[in-house]
Design goal:
Layout: E1 16-18, H1 27-33, E2 37-51, E3 58-73, H2 78-88, E4 101-111, E5 132-143, H3 145-154
Parallel strand pairs: 1-5
Antiparallel strand pairs: 1-3, 2-3, 4-5
C-alpha cells in the first residue's frame, strides 16, 4: 500500500482521482464538475481494487488497478469543489465513524503520451504494465473502514477495475 503520511496534510491544491459516477459520461460528472474542473485526463490508481456498490463503486487498497480520471479544479473553485465532493462521498473528516468514504492522498499513474499511434492502447486507456508519463499525488475517495470490511467479506470485485464496464450498453444510468 502506498499511503502518504496522513498526519502531514498535503500542501497546495491537489487534483482529484475519480473512478465512478464522476467519470465523464456518468451522471454526477456534469452535476458536480461542469464549470469546476479545468482539466481531465485518464489515470490509474495502482494497488487498489474496485468493488460494485449500490449504484456506484468503491475502491479499496488491494492487489489490482482502478482506472479513472484525474481532475484539476478550475481556478478559484478548489474549496467549493472539495466541499461538494466531500458531501457527495459522505466524507465527514478523517476517520469519522459515519464516513462512507475516506479522502486520502495517493500516487496516481498517468498514461504516457508516447503510447498514442504506436500500436498501444489509445491515449487515455492505460493498460497493466504500460509505460507511463509518471505519477502525481491526488485526492482519492476510498471506502471507509467499515465498508471495506464488508466488501472484503462479501463484496463483488469489478474485474479489470473499470466502472464504465459495469453499465449495460444502452442501459439506464445509475444515480
Amino acid at each position: 500500500m502506498s499511503t502518504l503520511d496522513p498526519a502531514s496534510p498535503p500542501t497546495g491544491e491537489l487534483p482529484f482521482f475519480v473512478y465512478g459516477t464522476l467519470l465523464p459520461g456518468e451522471p454526477n460528472h456534469d452535476l458536480f464538475l461542469r464549470g469546476r474542473a479545468s482539466g481531465e485526463r485518464a489515470a490509474v490508481l495502482p494497488r487498489a481494487l474496485l468493488y460494485d456498490g449500490p449504484g456506484y463503486p468503491y475502491a479499496i487498497d488491494g492487489h489490482g488497478r482502478v482506472h479513472g480520471t484525474l481532475l484539476t479544479a478550475a481556478p478559484g473553485v478548489y474549496e467549493e469543489l472539495l466541499g461538494l465532493l466531500d458531501h457527495l462521498e459522505e466524507y465527514l473528516g478523517p476517520g469519522h465513524p459515519r464516513n462512507l468514504y475516506e479522502r486520502v492522498v495517493r500516487e496516481i499513474e498517468l498514461p504516457g503520451e508516447e503510447q498514442a499511434g504506436k500500436g498501444q492502447p489509445e491515449e487515455g486507456t492505460p493498460e497493466e504494465g504500460a509505460p507511463g508519463a509518471g505519477t502525481v499525488r491526488a485526492w482519492v475517495y476510498l471506502a471507509a473502514a467499515a465498508v471495506t470490511r464488508s466488501l472484503r467479506t462479501g463484496g463483488s470485485v469489478i474485474d479489470g477495475g473499470r466502472w464504465v464496464t459495469r453499465r449495460p450498453p444502452g442501459g439506464p444510468r445509475t444515480p
